[in-house]
Amino acid sequence: MTTMDDRHNSSRPVEEIDGLSADESVNEAPDGGWAFEAQIQYDPSDPRDLTTVIITGIAEAEGVSITEVTSPPLYEVVDIVAIDDALFGRPNASREDTDSAFEFRYHEYKVRVEADGWVTVLRPSDGPTTE
């Protein structure tokens, strides 16, 4: 499993999800909106499917086993096949250098699936909010 620290050590640019950067704390969003919880890499050529990767990230964020992430079932929240087809259903060469991503909510979490395979789980931060 790849972690946020691994991502910072990769050749990927420093820019991060929702304004987080390597120079800022990964535990709190600067705008007080979302805080980092978990991140995992999805590779369409690996035997693990996208559903398993997303559930693993949510379980990591909740500090539970993946078998405990059951309600609601992920398929009732989002169409994983559509995400997989839209982001990963084309040749790798056409996925590189793209900012394509899909976000959805699962319980209080925001889950972001990026075309480069990163699945990031964020939770609402305790910081100030705008209304």
What structural class should be given to the helix and strand makeup? alpha+beta
Task: List segments where confidence is low: pLDDT < 50 over at least 5 consecutive residues.
Answer: 1-30
Overall shape: globular
Q: Please report the distance between the alpha carbons of the first and last residues.
A: 37 Å
Pfam families: HalOD1
Organism: Halorarum halophilum
Keywords: Plasmid
Region (Disordered): 1-30
Q: Can you describe this structure?
A:
The protein has 131 residues and is of the alpha+beta class. The protein has one domain (4-124). It has five helices and four strands. A four-stranded antiparallel β-sheet has the order 1-4-3-2.
For the structure shown, list the relevant keywords.
4-stranded antiparallel beta sheet, 5 helices, 4 strands, 27% helix, 21% strand, plasmid, HalOD1
Furnish the topology, listing elements before pairings.
Layout: H1 4-8, E1 34-41, H2 50-62, H3 74-77, H4 80-88, H5 92-95, E2 101-106, E3 109-114, E4 118-124
Antiparallel strand pairs: 1-4, 2-3, 3-4
Protein name: Halobacterial output domain-containing protein
Biased composition (Basic and acidic residues): 1-15
InterPro entries: HalOD1
